[in-house]
Amino acid sequence: TASLIDGKAHAAKLRADVRHQATRLLQEYGLQPGLAIVLVGSDPASDVYVRNKVRQAAEAGLASLEHRLPTETSEAELLALIEQLNGDPAVHGILVQLPLPAHINESKVIHAIAPSKDVDGFHPINVGQLSAGQETLIPCTPYGVLLLLRNTLPSLEGLHAVIVGRSNIVGKPMAQLLLSEHCTVTLTHSRTRNLANVVRGADIVIAAVGKPRLVRGDWIKPGACVIDVGINRVVENGEPYLVGDVAFNEVVEIAGAITPVPGGVGPMTIACLLRNTLIAACGSRGITLSNAL
Ligand code: NAD
């Protein structure tokens, strides 16, 4: 059976590292990294995410500044707030929690965030830099997956990585990151033919689809490393469960290593957000940061 990749433990280590470095920044440079989190409206899932981000930021020694705006906030008002945060020297990272209400143009809002403060890594400048293989702020979920892979495998070079799902927030940036690690990358999606056969060739499988247990045991090459990004809420036998995009009970028998859901990729995402805020704060003063774990 596969070994379990303990995302919770890795995330705790990463948060401890952020905390350690934040303390050092404060002592040596009088600099406290600040993360502004903007939430428009009252989506219950977003509310939980934002509360977690604020709490973990505080625990890691970052200043977190929460901006909760009513659903009827206009696009102009939101853009004005972002402009203000862009110019605020105490703010090093700006995160606008998505999705936004329908009357606000998401893309316009993402464009408005200063690229140097874009800790989600969604601004086209950062997207472009990532695809050009340049150093930049990396989207948090693929960043977390990369750190888990580096920790699990002795080397990524030359391995065949098959990514299932081509979203802008997970699949596409994941492909760019793994190319930079010298993997051979295949990016698959809903129109891919013979998906099972493509996945059978993979040394690394990354599932980011949003379909419960799509990836089956007989799709997996024995010994492969399987990362499950999916978070799906299902009800089975009257009980609510969180399940991934991978049929865990089948795949765990075949794979070499696998992330559980929950407790795999999820905890890494927020830890990487904190790490990005630290990177942005250092960048604002030209301070070099030592490498992540
Ligand atoms: P998305 O809906 O934006 O994209 C899904 C992708 O899957 C699309 O590219 C689509 O082409 C592909 N797809 C759909 N059906 C398919 C099929 N049958 N076969 C192959 N490909 C198919 O989703 P997303 O935002 O990338 O999120 C994917 C999953 O990851 C969701 O479950 C989401 O909740 C989860 N997620 C988790 C985290 C985390 O922190 N762990 C972060 C982001 C997303």
Strand-helix topology:
Layout: E1 3-4, H1 7-29, E2 34-40, H2 44-59, E3 63-69, H3 75-86, E4 93-96, H4 106-112, H5 124-131, H6 140-152, E5 160-164, H7 171-180, E6 184-188, H8 195-200, E7 204-207, E8 225-228, E9 232-236, E10 239-243, H9 248-251, E11 257-258, H10 265-285
Parallel strand pairs: 1-11, 2-3, 2-4, 5-6, 5-7, 7-8, 8-11
Antiparallel strand pairs: 9-10
The structure holds nicotinamide-adenine-dinucleotide.
Domain Tetrahydrofolate dehydrogenase/cyclohydrolase catalytic: 5-120
EC number: 1.5.1.5, 3.5.4.9
Pfam family, one: THF_DHG_CYH_C
Keywords:
three-stranded parallel sheet, THF_DH/CycHdrlase_CS, binds nicotinamide-adenine-dinucleotide, 41% helix, NAD(P)-bd_dom_sf, one-carbon metabolism, 293 residues, alpha/beta, Rossmann fold, six-stranded parallel sheet, methenyltetrahydrofolate cyclohydrolase activity, 2 domains
Global mean pLDDT: 97
Gross CATH architecture of the largest domain: 3-Layer(aba) Sandwich
Number of domains: 2
**Helix coverage percent of residues?**
40-55%
Q: What's the level 1 CATH class of the largest domain?
A: Alpha Beta
Main β-sheet, spatial strand arrangement = 1-11-8-7-5-6
* Radius of gyration over all CA atoms, rounded: 19 Å
Helix vs. strand class: alpha/beta
- What bound compounds does this protein have? nicotinamide-adenine-dinucleotide
